[in-house]
């Protein structure tokens, strides 16, 4: 197990929800944390993180704005002296359907793909050269969704089918018929997952993705118009548990799993399970020190 204390991280979209839990879990583990978000509340997050005894800094802005991304990344590097961990978390949800009119569709595209895919792309492009130049490895975790890795993709490699509430058939995508753009914005992250992991393996930089089902957050409560049934609400996973899984992943260190879409399914314990077999890339392409 790797000691994370003293490492330096960036967490995007950390004012509320999962990003806030990730930032606090990292700070509690001794990691210096830089955060950013569109929301005003982000200004209070830095002092809350400093209370864990680490350095912290915060910026308010849009992850789809390259000037903001440059400011955050350069600011974090200057404040901490380097960047070892990037958690690409900022994301938005919105309903979109195949027969939406063009004006709505363009606005939806810019918001949903602009945030979920462009934001991650820009932060990756800004941070990766720094990690390579530092020469001490690194960790990138992209926050995706279970819509794209239903039961492990392909379903037969999921290790938990015996305990799956969906029985012995593939779970239907959580996106249903009203999330084509959200699903696109998250499926597209596979390009970064596999492309970056392969390119960065020689630099000891791991790239993984978290693909969780319903987790209690501002986004989920917005989606349900703040009126979920008690049974449904009780089934949601806790952001704090997902954040602990993030720490467990990072503590694996460079020889841990790489290029994995890591599933967290409603109805199963929120914890890291053994890595899945690689089916879309050759395992040897993403082996750091002989492990993938
Ligand atoms: N909650 C779930 O059930 C769930 C499930 C699967 C995946 N996810 C993913 O987890 C991530 C976090 O989601 P959450 O549920 O915590 O959502 P949330 O809405 O509770 O928090 C998201 C945060 O990102 C910020 N943000 C949004 N757009 C931004 C932008 N353009 N620039 C900067 N900050 C921005 C928001 O202001 C907010 O603070 C997202 O990528 C989401 O798609 C969530």
Strand order of the largest sheet: 3-2-1-4-5-6-7
Q: In angstroms, what separates the terminal alpha carbons?
A: 16 Å
Question: What structural class should be given to the helix and strand makeup?
Answer: alpha/beta
Note the main sheet. 7 strands, parallel
Number of domains: 1
CATH architecture: 3-Layer(aba) Sandwich
Give a structural overview.
The chain is of the alpha/beta class. The chain has a single domain (8-286), classed as Rossmann fold. The chain has helices at residues 17-28, 42-50, 66-80, 102-134, 180-187, 189-200, 218-223, 230-235, 239-251, and strands at 8-12, 32-37, 56-60, 85-88, 138-143, 205-212, 261-264. A 7-stranded parallel beta sheet has the order 3-2-1-4-5-6-7, with helices on both faces. Strand 2, helix 2 (42-50) and strand 3 form a beta-alpha-beta unit. Helix 1 packs parallel to helix 2. 44% of the residues are buried. Nicotinamide-adenine-dinucleotide (NAD) binds at residues 13, 15-19, 37-39, 62-64, 89-92, 115, 119, 143, 145, 212, 214-215, 217-220.
